[in-house]
Amino acid sequence: MKSSQCNNNRIALVFQLLALFTASCTGGDGSGLPPTLPPGTFGPNFSEIQSNILAPNCATTGCHLGAGAPQGLRLDDANSYGMLVGVASSESSSTLRVAPGDPGNSYLIRKLEGSASVGAQMPLNAPALDQASIDVIRQWITDGAIDDRIPSSDPIKVTSLSPIPDSALTAAPVNIVAMFDRELDVSTVNQMTFVIEASGGDASFDDGNETQIPTTGITTTATSATFDLAGVALADDTYRVSLFGSGASVVMDLDANPLDGEFSGTFPSGDGLAGGDFEVTFSLALPVNGATLDALQASVFAPNCAVSGCHTGPTGNTLPAGMDLSNADASFANLVGISSLQQPARSRVAAGDPDDSYLVQKVEGTAASGSRMPLGGGVLDQALIDDIRDWIADGANR
Amino acid sequence: MKNNKLPLVIAAALILIASGKPAEAEPYLAVQEGMQCSNCHSNPAGGGKRTVYGNVFAQSELAARRIGGGKLWTGELTNWLSIGGNLRASFVDVDTPNRSGASDFDFNRGTFYVEATLVPGRLSLHVDEQFSPDDFENRETYLRLNSKDTKWFVTAGEFYLPYGLRIQDDTAFVRQATGINFANTDRGVQGGYNSGAWSVIASITDSGAGRGGSDNQVSLVSSYMQATWRAGVSVNVNDDDAGDRVMFGFFAGLKTGPVAWLAEIDSISNDISPGVTADAFAGLLEANWTIRGKNNLKFSYDYLDPNNDISEDHQVRYSVVWEHSPIQFFQARLGFRLYDGIPQVDAQNRKVFFAELHGFF
User: Fold this and answer.
1) What is the pLDDT of residues B65-104, one digit of tens each?
2) Which domain holds residue B75?
């Protein structure tokens, strides 16, 4: 009876203890803390690693926080980066806690994965971090272990351009795309800072005959800028692409560093100092659809026009000799962009516009003045006339 | 037979019906027996190598039965050399929200102790070395000088800091949040007075974090003990270049029949960066119910507010642990811990089941 009474008292005591424990408070609901992102939903940058991994798991009271932090390693927001990156481990002095670019030789990774030769796996006395979180830290280290919280003093640079600088294109590009090594301040990329010019046919950009190419729009991503040329007709010429890093309007990064643009033939651009324009050229020579001038000279002008008593020169203000078609150079000089003596408002050859070219009208017999050419020599074969049309449509190039 | 089964039935029932919590602590034995920690341990603050009395107690009082017969193990190999050791192996199952369960067999910790008596009663060398689970790692190495009456002592070397209740469970919030636990030692000198009801131990060390630096850490623990109760205070001031940490703590023990109670509260003020201070609070309440003399059922409640300035960031933990030493030098543990913390950190809401085998001598 006495033993039974004793057991009953003990059971009562157990339930009294249980009541005491279960009446105690539960854990906090976390409302006073900033929300953290679940693993796999944030990027490999230090600010997010600090707020989502290191602060809640490591920089806790009694651990890597404040005076007495184990191994002197403080992982609070203010000290974490400075005590991790490039700092030798106190447990393994030959190993950096974080070796930029080398996660496999970073002591932090070894401690988190439990492969360190000294000391216990971290977090101490708690479940290991999930692999997704460790992988984010690995990627951050692989990327150079940059502290993205600090404004960079490194100027932004151009890392590539399409079309390739100094390239010779045979098709007009539909856009010009520049890539950068860091995030752009996209508001600084516009028609004042991203410019395409045509040389005016002389491949020179210093003689005042350049023309600025209009764009249907400039679009950007975080690290690229695209100059849209859809619907813009580009003639054969040399073109210059300019991204300005000097002057009143310049391309800048998010930390307000101007573009370091000087280009010496290899990417990335720059001379290490903020500022400097990025300027490169490319040329465009569209393929010819029909005959060349040399071919026309041989098939049309020489046998039919530059015959005795007709367009044999010398060049002058009289017809027919004054319109010298005796060789290809003379034909180009006396035809392309030259006003007709009979119809001064019309060019003998209007580049790109065969219907408005007086030469075509004369050989087709539709000209308002004078006779159909060749005079007295019969009508040109339509195939030859079509060659003349194609040459003019292609730009009447020499 | 019926009475023999009762403790197990109750233990099983508690695990099932309670979100209980365990704590594992040896100081409860001191409370139950009305003795100082130094009665059973060579270290004046407790833990580590056992004294001759500690070894005899473990074999004759703690164990359900003693097998093998023969002389009791005292740890003494010679008049001047004694040894000891611990090995803990466990199976742990952790259930963390949003993760697949993780189970593991592990050697938690293996340690051995050596005490060399250089001058009987006056001067001794103490070594506490961990050999598992990783490489060899020194825990404590110090030289101890006693006064002639052995009431006063001074030690120099590397040792665990005197602060609070030196319970075995480093995951208890009072051990974790103070950072004074079996994972951290410090180097310096320690002195104290240990006699009768009073015990005072103080140390000045090199701040741990800044070994080789000029910073210092001062620690003190003092307690007053009677047969059925004790109370004490703890102080730790860590002067660090990057900011100071100041901790105050109160602890107590009370024996009520078969139950030995332990309690500790700690206030922690941490300068974490210039102008930024985090004040934390940690607490422990533990009940150790001795069943039929050889089984201990331990309930504990842990509380941690890591930053008083932030609302709703506190954590609690409930534990229930059954401990039994069927034979000398051997103890089995079965426990369950329920963590309840902020929802942002899954690990603060885990459940842990463990079974541990503990060999010691």
Assistant:
1) 888 878 899 999 999 999 999 998 999 999 988 888 888 8
2) 2-360
